[in-house]
Amino acid sequence: MTVSKMTWRPQYRSSKFRHVFGKAATKENCYDGVPITRSVHDNHFCAVNPRFIAVITECAGGGAFLVLSVHHTGKVDPLHPKVSGHRGNVLDIKWNPFNDFCIASCSEDSTVKVWDIPPHGVLKNLTVPWKELQGHSRRVGLIEWHPTANNVLFSTGYDYQVMIWNLDSPEAVIKNPVRTISHHTDVVLSMSFNTDGSRLATSCKDKKIRVLEPRTGNLLQEANCKNHKASKVLFLGNLKMLLSTGSSRWNHRQMALWDQEDLDVPLLQEDLDGSSGVLFPFYDPDTHMLYIAGKGDGNIRYYEISSEKPYLHFLTEYRSHTPQKGMGIMPKRGLDVNSCEVFRFYKLVTIKALIEPLSMIVPRRSESYQDDIYPMTAASAAAMSAEEWLSGIDKGPVLQSLKPGSRVPDSYPELSSGLGSKGLGNSLGTRRSQSRPGQLQLAYIQDQLGNKEGKECRSKTSVSNGQDPTLCSPPKTENELRLKFHKQQEEIRRLREMLNQRDVRIKQLELEINNVRNSQGSH
After folding, report:
1. Three-state SS letters, 57-96
2. How large is the C-alpha radius of gyration of the chain?
3. Considering Cα of 364, then 366, then 368, then 372, what sign does the dihedral take?
4. Which end of the chain is more exposed for a tag (fewer CB within 10 A), N or C?
């Protein structure tokens, strides 16, 4: 007789994100009195970067959107200047991922316009765009920037075409896209790129999900699932999977997971509820967390995604009584890493004319920077130019650390990493002084001194965690004034410490220089 030994298995997964919770901003940290659009289009209506928040507004006679400093919280002036160059309602807006002062908008007037926002925000109505893109024959409902190539914009409209635009073109009005993709038989409902921008996934009103090669327009995969009518589709980072949200045959809201190389049958289908609002999916490739927010819902569900079965692990949900019409997402580089914030939504609450920031936070006791929840993430630097991408090159995103004080990488890093004129000069100088070690050491110390001063000068003018002091709005309440005062005192203390350290370092280096000179003199 054999006795089988039973092993006990825990019913929960070990995960550092199991206790993530949503923290809504206080009333004074919301944006109040914003005339949010009443459009029934299923878009986000809001776009955010570390400097500005843009939201499509309701207005008569043409279309407009509002651009505010992210620090300009509280009551918004009803007469605040707008970006108002479109002749029809604005349907979508997106910030350029590599330029915080550049935003694209598309409209019912069948045009796409790209705007230059002044450094201190929109101080008067902006009506003249930097570029105007004319190619669509009907209204344009959706735009998307390429994730790694600079100044490459995709647009799609009710003419069922997806158009690719090169904004490096010198003309102010561009009438010919570099490519037009014509595989869709109905309106495209969403577009999503994979990490390096070599694949484009689309969902369409004809109930099909397509994976395309964006540069050539070749159709690689097509899903035609009878049991799942997809409205939004999303690439899940480097997991080689797609996620779609939509409805089932019985009109239940549903999400499905797909292998990007085989769209015949979904890997997973899960019904959520019987509501009718569109489900907006948001994926964070750094934490592998998926957020599902329904239009008209007050709650946001969140999950953890893994590359092995069962793929989807429900964590919990954030609940509130205020329904969201749309959502803006802060890029990773604009989050508050000191409070362990891993994601930030900007909820558009139409019934209150309110934009409410909502932070997703990992509870940690330590207030220091947490390396394990902030891996290297996409920087605000392009990996290549539009011409390089159009010539057939694919590159992954330029990565940066979110650790305070980390250097922000430059665009097109392979150009600066080569042996340029500066590098050539340095190598020649090294070769010339190899026969004179005293001179080499002296040159090195002086170079170090110059670098130290340069770094400190740069650090004083840099943006820290997306907060530029020149863009801060004046305090409106006594609490705000007190907070600003304490922050200012802390900044003054930090700068004094930095100056003291710099003085000590200068003295040390001067002593070393004198020692080197003395040793040279004795020889």
Report:
1. ECCCCCEEEEEEECCCCEECCCCCCCEEEECCCEEEEEEC
2. 26
3. negative
4. N
pLDDT at 8: 43
Contact assessment for residue 62 and residue 84, using Cβ atoms and an 8 Å cutoff: yes
The CATH code that applies to domain 189-319 is 2.130.10.10
Return the closest-CA partner of residue 207 out of 247, 180, 253. Answer: 247
Question: Is the pLDDT higher at 186 or at 428?
Answer: 186
What whole-number distance in Å separates Cα of residue 368 and Cα of residue 330?
A: 22
Model pLDDT, residue 12: 54
Could you tell me which residues come within 8 angstroms of residue 70 by beta carbon, excluding any fewer than 6 positions away? 48, 50, 51, 52, 53, 334, 466, 471
Of 196, 200, 226, nearest to 211 (Cα)? 200
Q: What are phi and psi of 61, to 5 degrees?
A: 70, 75
Q: Which amino acid is at 459?
A: S
The model's pLDDT over 316-351, given as tens digits with 9 standing for 90+, comes to 999 999 999 999 999 999 999 989 999 999 999 999
Strands 74-75 and 31-32, how do they pair? parallel
The pairing of beta strand 131-134 with beta strand 173-174: parallel
How far, in Å, CA of 514 to CA of 278, rounded?
71
Contact yes or no for 113/124 (Cβ under 8 A): no
Q: Encode pLDDT of 491-514 as tens digits.
A: 887 888 788 788 878 888 888 888
* 327-356 burial code (b ≥16 CB/10 A, e <16): bbbbbbbbbebeebbbbbbbbbbbeeebbb
Collapsing DSSP states into helix, strand and coil, what is residue 147? coil
Nearest to 361 by CA among 14, 23, 18, 13: 23
The confidence score (pLDDT) of residue 115 equals 96
Instruction: Please report where in the chains the tokens 């509130």 appear, as a residue.
Output: 320
For 146-155, b/e burial (b = at least 16 CB within 10 A) is bbbbbbbbbb
**Whole-number percent of the chain with pLDDT over 70:** 85
| Token pair of 298 as six digits | 């007050």
Query: What spatial distance separates the first Cα and last Cα of the chain, rounded to whole Å?
Result: 92
Domain extents in the chain: 189-319
Tokens of 431: 């070769």
Which residue's entry shows tokens 């650390």? 401
Nearest residue to 234 (alpha-carbon basis) of 255, 215, 218: 255
